[in-house]
Amino acid sequence: MSDAGYLHGSCLCGGVTYRAALPVSHASHCYCRMCQKQHGAAAGSYANVASAGLVIEQGADLIAEYASSDHGRRDFCRGCGSTLFWRSTQSPDRIAITLGTMEPEYAGQVTREWFVENKPAWLPQA
């Protein structure tokens, strides 16, 4: 597969770099309170890909995991705290990669929104 067949990204400090094989099944914004707290933002934004296609190119030892629920696992960089991945133990063949860590920026469309009832009132109205 050519380099164009991958998403690439890194954490804020550059200690963790990754590539993930395309295709993206969907991209989403999740407004659940856990994503809001972890990201410090209105939503967590993710691209969902096959977990078998994710390669940690550098810094695997810097990745820490937080079990945020009985099935949700959130991975982040120990060095800078950047949120990197979300995965469910109920769907081990998939992984969600944070859109904000991608280089170049994600060019696809966000097609799903989760937990919209938690969407903050302070967001601009469409």
TrEMBL record:
Which organism is the protein's source? Duganella sacchari
Mind telling me which PROSITE patterns this protein's record contains?
A: CENP_V_GFA (PS51891)
| The keyword NADP is assigned to this record | no
Q: Which residues form the CENP-V/GFA domain?
A: 7-115
In terms of domain of life, where is this protein from? Bacteria
The protein's name in its UniProt record = Uncharacterized conserved protein
Membrane-spanning regions, if any?
Answer: none
Q: Which family does it belong to?
A: Belongs to the Gfa family.
MF (Gene Ontology): carbon-sulfur lyase activity; metal ion binding
- Which UniProt key words apply to this protein? Lyase, Metal-binding, Zinc
Alphabetical list of SUPFAM superfamilies matching this protein: Mss4-like
Q: Which InterPro entries match?
A: CENP-V/GFA, Mss4-like_sf
